[in-house]
Prior knowledge:
Elements: H1 11-22, H2 38-44, H3 111-134, H4 142-159, H5 189-204, H6 211-228, H7 236-262, H8 272-286, H9 299-312, H10 320-330, H11 332-336
Helix pairs in contact: 3-5, 3-8, 5-6, 6-7, 7-8
The chain binds zinc ion.
The site of zinc ion has 6 residues, from helix 8.
Amino acid sequence: xxxxxxxxxxxxxxxxxxxxxxxxxxxxxxxxxxxxxxxxxxxxxxxxxxxxxxxxxxxxxxxxxxxxxxxxxxxxxxxxxxxxxxxxxxxxxxxxxxxxxxxxxxxxxxxxxxxxxxxxxxxxxxxxxxxxxxxxxxxxxxxxxxxxxxxxxxxxxxxxxxxxxxxxxxxxxxxxxxxxxxxxxxxxxxxxxxxxxxxxxxxxxxxxxxxxxxxxxxxxxxxxxxxxxxxxxxxxxxxxxxxxxxxxxxxxxxxxxxxxxxxxxxxxxxxxxxxxxxxxxxxxxxxxxxxxxxxxxxxxxxxxxxxxxxxxxxxxxxxxxxxxxxxxxxxxxxxxx
Length: 337
Ligand SMILES: [Zn+2]
């Protein structure tokens, strides 16, 4: 971009643009990480594997079970662990793979998509259903139990200054119906985090009597708490802690799911995103750099896309790309200081 914009909304903005266009910057770009939702990654990298395929993963040869128990994604110590990054996940190299310095390891699963809008919603919904059935929220029947659960959740959020979950916990919001697995159906991913914190609080206060469920809730919360609160590059101690919490959760979740399956109960659903979450846990320990996997989450990116989309709706199509880049550049000088 070499021209100055015709109109400026403020002197501050004008100065920023002036400094950017007065001095010549030589930009160097390197691929550090490619992240986004699974549908985007699958499309951008022409992946032959995916959630709807028997081979689920772009990083290893794990399957849903057709290649035997040793290659099953639910086998936490299966042979698929020895196949990581052995094969390209595409038949024809996609354009992005031709970028200088690119390696498939740079395509990262992230906690937002794998937990907050993925497997975490299955797990947390099953916990709430279990507690309601077990009488943890009173024994007046499911509707009253879920009403009490909602009251408890909101009181916890208010006491800890967390975002309120406006959607009440109900059979609808938990997708608690015959013939389907429960799934926490609330719109905002950050509110899934609030529900998770609340359940971890209940586990710590002893309201979750089942020790395996309490362990799963607590360990998953501790894993996310460790990485979210960690530095950009985790210390060895923090990485080891996060890995231990993550593996404890994965083991507990598989055991819960297996027990429910044997009892022919639709609880503790394990979908392919569970396997991606497993890779995040493995990466905490195995990444040589100890780069925090929380950096791969796309919370801010999704925010930017939302803001950009609002702008796009009010900008003439001929100027959209330029205007979006200009708005982005407003914040750039501060980053370059
Ligand atoms: Zn895998």
